[in-house]
Amino acid sequence: MTVTTQTSPSVVPPGGEEPFLVVDDLTVRFPTEDGLITAVSELSYSVGLGETLGIVGESGSGKSVSSMAVLGLHDARTAQITGSIRVGGTEVIGLGESRMRKLRGNQVSMIFQDALAALHPFYKVGGQLAEAYLVHHPSASKRDARRKAVEMLDRVGIPQPDRRVDDFPHQFSGGMRQRAMIAMGLINDPSLLIADEPTTALDVTVQAQILDLLQDLQREFNSAVIIITHDLGVIAEMADDVLVMYAGRAVEYGPAREILTHPEMPYTWGLLSSVPDVTSDTSARLIPIPGNPPSLLSMPSGCSFHPRCAHRDKVPGDLCTTTVPDLAPGGRGPGHLKRCHLANPDEVYEAEVLPEIAPDVAAGDPGTDVAARPDEES
Amino acid sequence: MSDLNVDPGADNPEVTEGGELQDGAKDTRLPFEELARSTHTANVLDPTAEPVLEVDNLKMYFPLKSGGLFRRTVGHVQAVDGVSFQVPKGGALGLVGESGCGKSTTGRLITRLYKPTAGALRFGGIDMATVSNKEMKPLRREVQMIFQDPYTSLNPRQNVGAIVGAPLAVHKVVPKDKILGRVQELLEVVGLNPEHYNRYPNEFSGGQRQRIGIARALTLNPKLLVADEPVSALDVSIQAQVINLLQDLQREFDIAFLFIAHDLAVVRHFCPEVAVMYLGKIVEIADRESIYSHAHHPYTQALLSAVPDIKQATLGGRRERIRLEGDVPSPINPPSGCHFRTRCPLAQEICARVEPPLLQIGPRHKVACHFAGELGHHPAEPVTAPLLGVDRQGSPVGGATVGTVPTGPGYDDTWYDVKSKQMVSA
């Protein structure tokens, strides 16, 4: 898993091949009764084979809408999609339904959040898996498909797969259903797997099992993975790259380690300061982001985060309220893009935010401090 | 609230003051330093606080009926199977565990939404487990609940004034014409616009709805609030707002919390004491440092190792994870002896034969395990064997003096040291 493709995402690295998935300047608009809403605007990212991209954001930030566009799941009659999405070199936007269907579930597949709702309650789990296989392998017999279904259930760690293949979804536990969903997503050996909140409804122990499974399978099949989540802990464990979205726009994009240790956008700071950590210092504060995400119908002028931003006073003039900042490299090199007017975000973060949310890290060398369990507190 | 907008540069006030912003944003332009000062660090344990609630050997068995005409009882779901703990006055006890471990049932028993099968719920000198519904009514003022899902716990056909004012009318606390004033006061306390009392729940966002639920729970000035997953349905940035609000209220009104959640990090921040439940039983209960840094039960250790850790990003790689195999067994027919033994990496013969008692092993630390020890330092011999008068396989030893293991809800001054296998005191 290399992390070398973080130059401006729409640019193909010279001499290199284009990453498997390239989303370039994607804008998705939906007409509603109250007016046209822009769910995703000018979004660009790329994921190479064997890489994992984490997309973070609150509900309504456009993270699911953008990845559903990759699968061509929006109604072509109403949704207005512009820009370009290339999957393995094929342009997806405007692709006919029959060709899209060939791609969907075969080269690109998706794992949904709520496995109970995503699996059909009337059909046996094995039947649903076999169907996904048969659609893309018309020459295969039903027996082959069933064998493949058993094999995949075994691969994702379901005990006694030859018996469980005839169970209905309700006979599975929550973790097993999610495993069955993953098996269905992987049955055609896709090159791109989109996991939309794959562990949100699960307990931590089951979540750990599923995340381990996803990583093992990715290593085995060398697929590109997009993991959509609001849990920064999951991002920290899984992702090579992170895309932070707010109100339909990318606000920060770069390697996961870089973004989580040196975030440069106040919204990312807010996300980091709103979640406590199981190993953090108990004198760390939990600092919320004030207010609520904006309504897509009445977007704030300028930077869409400005009404909630606690650092706006550090930007001269009324830049924040009038001008949308560009997604541009900050002070941390060309691979780390941020959409913010702050001139010295790294300094502000280290001087103001970090001491409040992680006093132990701010005080000392982060490497040693974090490694030690906080035994000295007791 | 819009008059608090002190921004001279806003050239488009309609947008910046859009309806979405009143919630919690007393002043959204607060500079970061002031914003940080208005928040809280983790709650601190007050070891001298008197218990406001004492739960003693609480049990809840739900009967399972057969499908036939007579609907005979064919078994029981042992949802809660003998839990004991204390909630200190003005403090907070966290209750964590996987789904189906009985933590929500425990919360509903304490608010007497269910009548317990056995056990005691001592609250202000009264045993709430045995009182009748009529005798319970005045007590309901003192014990209130915040529910998990703000979308289903508010009546969509009642406006906020009716929802928040209902407890006042039911308990006849204030005269009818004063209810509205009190409701507006409460809305202000939880950070909502008091003028919105005539709006309906669907006009509010998830975080705002949870605030309405909190206002409703506060109406009768309760001494104890049972918060059942109060933030798990909310967005990350809103979670922190609600946690800070609960901390504000706890300090201002001296409310004790039973905080039920599955998010170990949030519980660590909010609760100075934590109980870990597994299949209807408490397996470990201790103060924050003992649980999170010196957990002695293999289940607690596995649970903690499964939590994804943001700080890993600064180190790279992952923490070594204890993988738990399989699923939680059915509470209809739980395993003999220790309930966790079917998934436990340490399980031996004794675990199937003898149920480990919830043994006090530190000044504020109890654990129910035969092989209690810190991660990687679990003893080879069962530490509980000499206390229970059994050998290492769990068979009773003739003539052995059986020590008494205190099982009450509180902590004693003397405890059993697992390293030296002796009773020690502070």
UniProtKB/TrEMBL annotation, chain B:
<dbReference type="InterPro" id="IPR017871">
    <property type="entry name" value="ABC_transporter-like_CS"/>
</dbReference>
<dbReference type="InterPro" id="IPR027417">
    <property type="entry name" value="P-loop_NTPase"/>
</dbReference>
<dbReference type="Pfam" id="PF00005">
    <property type="entry name" value="ABC_tran"/>
</dbReference>
<dbReference type="InterPro" id="IPR050319">
    <property type="entry name" value="ABC_transp_ATP-bind"/>
</dbReference>
<dbReference type="InterPro" id="IPR013563">
    <property type="entry name" value="Oligopep_ABC_C"/>
</dbReference>
<comment type="similarity">
    <text>Belongs to the ABC transporter superfamily.</text>
</comment>
<dbReference type="InterPro" id="IPR003593">
    <property type="entry name" value="AAA+_ATPase"/>
</dbReference>
<dbReference type="Pfam" id="PF08352">
    <property type="entry name" value="oligo_HPY"/>
</dbReference>
<feature type="region of interest" description="Disordered">
    <location>
        <begin position="1"/>
        <end position="25"/>
    </location>
</feature>
<keyword id="KW-0067">ATP-binding</keyword>
<keyword id="KW-0547">Nucleotide-binding</keyword>
<dbReference type="GO" id="GO:0005524">
    <property type="term" value="F:ATP binding"/>
</dbReference>
<protein>
    <submittedName>
        <fullName>Dipeptide ABC transporter ATP-binding protein</fullName>
    </submittedName>
</protein>
<feature type="domain" description="ABC transporter">
    <location>
        <begin position="64"/>
        <end position="304"/>
    </location>
</feature>
<keyword id="KW-0813">Transport</keyword>
<dbReference type="InterPro" id="IPR003439">
    <property type="entry name" value="ABC_transporter-like_ATP-bd"/>
</dbReference>
